[in-house]
């Protein structure tokens, strides 16, 4: 199956200056945070929507510093 064709995105200079890993983590954090918000922070429903196991979503959230308390702001 071919990948979904998404429109090209114009990135701000700050994003273009990030190393790939930081950029990827930022985008993944934001995408997961948006999906959690859309699902009222219901982990099971969000994991199903993302196509991953609930335990894997918990691991990703921990690794990316996401929690309901900080609503997606990376933990220091």
Number of helices: 4
The best one-word shape is: globular
CATH architecture of the domain at 19-64: Orthogonal Bundle
SS-derived structural category? mainly alpha
What is the N-to-C succession of helices and strands? HHHH
**CATH class identity of the domain at 19-64:** Mainly Alpha
Distance between the termini: 40 Å
CATH-defined fold name of the domain at 19-64: Arc Repressor Mutant, subunit A
Beta strand %: under 5%
Largest sheet, in brief, is: none
Commentary on this structure:
By secondary structure, the protein is mainly α. It has a domain at 19-64: Arc Repressor Mutant, subunit A. The chain has helices at 13-16, 20-38, 43-50, 54-64.
Q: Keywords, please?
A:
76 residues; mainly alpha; Arc Repressor Mutant, subunit A; 0% strand; globular
Write the layout of secondary structure elements.
Blueprint: H1 13-16, H2 20-38, H3 43-50, H4 54-64
Give a brief outline of the structure.
This protein is mainly alpha-helical and 76 residues long. It has helices at residues 13-16, 20-38, 43-50, 54-64.
